[in-house]
Structure formats: structure tokens, C-alpha cells
Amino acid sequence: MTLAKGSLAYIEAHKGVQYYEQTPEEARAERAAAPIHQVSVEGIASIEDRLITVSDGAQILVRIYTPVGTGPFPIIIYYHGGGWVFGNPDYADGGCRYLTASSKSVVVSVDYRLAPEYPFPTPIQDSYDALLWVAENAKSLHVDLSKLYVAGDSAGGNIAAVVSQWAADKNGPEIAGQALIYPVTNINFHTSSYEKFGLGYGLDQKGMVWFINQYIKDSKLKYNPSVSPLIAKDLSKIPRTILIAAEFDVLLDEGIAYVTRLREAGIEAKHVVMPGLIHSYFSKMEFFEEDTKKTTELIAEFFQQH
Question: Which of 13, 77, 226, 281 could covalently link to 288 via disulfide, CB atoms 3.0 to 4.6 Å apart?
């Protein structure tokens, strides 16, 4: 087990006061001040921001990436990471560009509302509403709904898994596959991977506790499968899944547990561990651009096998 150069550089760059030692406002201000590393990716015809109306009447932004070529295209709905507290489509932009180009799909990146101002279930409801909006607007988006996928990293991977669960439970749009990048699948801070990697590997145990405390206002909610998709009673209707993990990540074990439960339910589930990498690599282009590109290629290959 050896940390990759990018992982070491990221860890060194993030020493000092941690976000979980700040208020959400302070931590967001610090992040907003940091420049976003732009990437240049070929194969994208257009990128458009659009406001959509969600079920409580509010409006949220979606960013639509359309590849070069003639459709109808596959469609991937993407949910960014950030512990349900941070992030937006800018945060996920590099990964979404590579995902669009690698998969030759339309990618819709969802700017769901964030905790603590909008705790659970609002981020999930916004994200599910975005799925419904895509299904209703497939023709104008020029997409093929038989190739409808969801994806996300970290908290966004949690959201993607829950959206898949909701779609099955509510007879919603049929999802052909999900790609979960180091997702939160269970609220349990005492696994072996938490013990090994709980301090100094990009996502500390204290950080996850802080995120959860912002996201759920009642500790009993951690036993709700819409917060912890690992504990859902029935996973037999979840779509085929690729789960991409980072080797040095507190969430490693719960990802393995989720893949194991999917397989036990008869679901095709591929598990890939990215060697030497830490949590958050997918959204940190200045340290992990090649790793992010490789991840999108793995996702594209998995989806195209459908």
C-alpha cells in the first residue's frame, strides 16, 4: 500500500485548519476563494446551464453537457460530492467533461440544494426531481431513455444510489445502470477502513461526522435507507452497478459491503479499487486529472456493455 504522488501532494496542500473545525459558512468561503482548475476536453459540442422547477416550487440549476455527434445519446445524471454541504456543478465540471467525452453521453450535472440550510430529504428530492425532469424532456435533450444512467461521487454517490432506490420503489423512470465513485452507503464511523484511514487521508472520520451532523437533524435518520442505502431491505431492483473506490479511504469498507449485498440480491456489480488514491480525487483536477479521466473511461466501458 503506497500513496500516489497526487495523493501525497493533495494531503500536503490541505494541512492546517480543517473544514470540520469551522462553520459551514466559513468553510464554504475558504473553498470559494480557491481557484477551480479548468480542464480542456475534446469531444464536447455544448455546455448549457438551465433552471428547472422542483416539486416544492423552487428552482435549481442543471448543467447540460452535450457530446459531439448525432444523437439520440445515452444520458447520465450526475450528482456532485461535497458531503451534502459543499459543491456545485463548477466543482464537478472537470469530471463531467471527461465523462461526457468518454461515454459519448449527454451529462446533466445537478445543483441540488445543500445542508444545513436544506437538510435531508431536500437534496435527495431535488435530485430525484432532476431525474423526472430529464425523463420528461428527453426529446429536447436529444437522449435515449433506454440508456438512462445515474452517477455521483462521495455524497453524490450516496444520492445516486438513493435515487436508483426511489426510482424502483416509486415506479419512476427506469435506470439502466449506476456509477458510484467512493459513495457513502452507510452511517457507521467504526469500520476497519475508518480505523485505518480516519486521519490524514483526505477525508477524516471527524469530517464525516461533521457532514452527517449538517445533513440529518435526527440521529435516528441514519437508519433510514434513503440516508444509508446499504441497509435497504430489498436491493433486487437496483440497476447494474459499478462502484469505484479509492484505496486509502474511510468509505472503502462500506462500498465493499454495498457491492456484496447487490451481488447477493442478484445484481451485476463491479468493484474497482483505484490504487494509491484517496477520497475526493475525482473532483480535484490539479492533483488527479489522469485518474479522473481513467475513472470516466471505466464508467463509460461499463455502461456501454449494456
Answer: 281
One of 193, 279, 280, 291 is an active-site residue; which one?
Answer: 279
pLDDT in tens, the chain (306 residues): 799 999 999 999 999 999 999 999 999 999 888 888 889 999 999 999 999 999 999 999 999 999 999 989 999 999 999 999 999 999 999 999 999 999 999 999 999 999 999 999 999 999 999 999 999 999 999 999 999 999 999 999 999 999 999 999 999 999 999 999 999 999 999 999 999 999 999 999 999 999 999 999 888 999 999 999 999 999 999 999 999 999 999 999 999 999 999 999 999 999 999 999 999 999 899 999 999 999 999 999 999 997
Instruction: Examine the residue annotation and report whether 249 is marked as an active-site residue of this protein.
Output: yes
Is residue 204 annotated as a catalytic residue, yes or no?
Answer: no
Of these residues, 103, 105, 109, 154, which one is catalytic? 154
Unique residue bearing C-alpha cell 500500500:
1
3-class secondary structure, 70? coil
Domains, the chain, in order of start with CATH, read 5-304 (3.40.50.1820)
Residue 279 annotated in active site: yes
Tell me the three state secondary structure of residue 292.
helix
- C-alpha span between 84 and 203 (Å, rounded): 14
Query: What whole-number distance in Å separates Cα of residue 100 and Cα of residue 94?
Result: 10
Q: Coil, strand or helix: which one is 111?
A: coil
> Which positions ≥6 away from 7 have C-beta within 8 Å?
201, 202, 248, 276, 277, 278, 281, 287
